[in-house]
UniProtKB/TrEMBL annotation:
GO MF assignments: diaminopimelate epimerase activity
Organism per entry: Alkalicoccobacillus porphyridii
Assigned keywords, A-Z: Amino-acid biosynthesis, Cytoplasm, Isomerase, Lysine biosynthesis
Subcellular locations according to the entry: Cytoplasm
Lineage of source species: Bacteria, Bacillati, Bacillota, Bacilli, Bacillales
Keyword Amino-acid biosynthesis among UniProt keywords: yes
This protein's name: Diaminopimelate epimerase
């Protein structure tokens, strides 16, 4: 099986080209765990399948490195767009990608050599209703700065779905967050029946935030594109910025530029890089 390893700001996946490779559906979770293993596999945050689509130009499926399938992946979308363009699966610079969480629009920005260093994705509108996260609770329909009891500790969180679920917490100091404790405890909390990605945000200004993530099914990663979009939406819902303003998000692996537009769509711009290509013999 041929593979390509790519990353978006250090969030790396093993990409398999389903235009050329034929995989057995039942073995996909196990394959994701195997290729992602840093000791006995290739090493990555998971596995992404790029394939044909009946309703878009290409399709993307995402598996975390624990084998669970996710509905969406922002860093993965930028890499899929780069892969599709550079491999001539699309001929336009603007095209559609099908994900399990819905359709998105990609705009690639090729250089003179037709290589794509950066990509903009229109992620569509965030889903904010409690049932769309999904999150159990009887309070207001939108979960904005809602008090939450976690292991006898009182925290506040804002819940946003970007096709996949996110819980965003605000902090005054991103260097001293208890991510290794709160991340896993919140990820599998019984009030999130489909589990949840956990993000901390420190607001610098209405145009700039710091961000850290504990990803559902993976743990701490260098970056999370959907998480960064959810963080900007949460920042605006909590009154720290406004719709229409571009927010620079500082992640461990680099920066993303995100705008929640007046029309409701979220735009994400950032890098996509190819690391290597190879043949999986496992
Ligand atoms: N790294 C991703 C998100 C991958 C899926 C996530 N862990 C989930 O289970 O929802 C991104 O860049 O968005």
């Amino acid at each position: 099986m041929n593979f390509t390893k790519m990353h978006g700001l250090g969030n790396s996946y093993i990409y398999i080209d389903l235009f050329k490779e034929d995989l057995n559906e039942e073995t996909l979770p196990e394959l994701a765990i195997k290729v992602a293993d840093k000791n006995t596999g290739i090493g990555s945050d998971g596995m992404i399948l790029i394939g044909p689509s009946e309703i878009a130009d290409v399709s993307m499926r995402v598996f975390n490195n624990d084998g669970s399938e996710a509905m969406n992946c922002g860093n993965g979308l930028r890499c899929v767009a780069k892969f599709a363009y550079e491999n001539n699966y699309v001929s336009q610079t603007v095209f559609k990608i099908e994900t399990k969480g819905g359709l998105v629009e990609a705009t690639v920005h090729p250089d003179q050599n037709q290589k794509v260093p950066t990509v903009t994705i229109n992620m569509g509108a965030p889903r904010l209703n409690r049932s769309q996260i999904p999150m159990i609770g009887s309070q207001k329909d939108q979960v904005v700065n809602e008090p939450f009891q976690l292991n006898e500790q009182d925290i506040h969180l804002t819940a946003v779905s970007m096709g996949n679920p996110h819980a965003v917490l605000f902090t005054d100091n991103i260097q001293s967050i208890p991510l290794l404790v709160v991340g896993p405890a919140l990820e599998k909390h019984s009030r999130f029946p489909e589990w949840v990605n956990v993000e901390y945000v420190e607001v610098v200004s209405e145009n700039e935030i710091h961000f850290r993530v504990w990803e559902r099914g993976t743990g701490i990663t260098q970056a999370c594109g959907t998480g960064a979009c959810a963080a900007v939406v949460a920042t605006i819902l909590n009154g720290f910025s406004q719709k229409g303003k571009e927010v620079k998000v500082h992640l461990l692996g680099g920066d993303l530029h995100i705008t929640w537009k007046e029309n409701g769509d979220v735009l994400m711009n950032g890098a996509a890089e190819t690391i290597c290509e190879g043949v999986w013999l496992g």
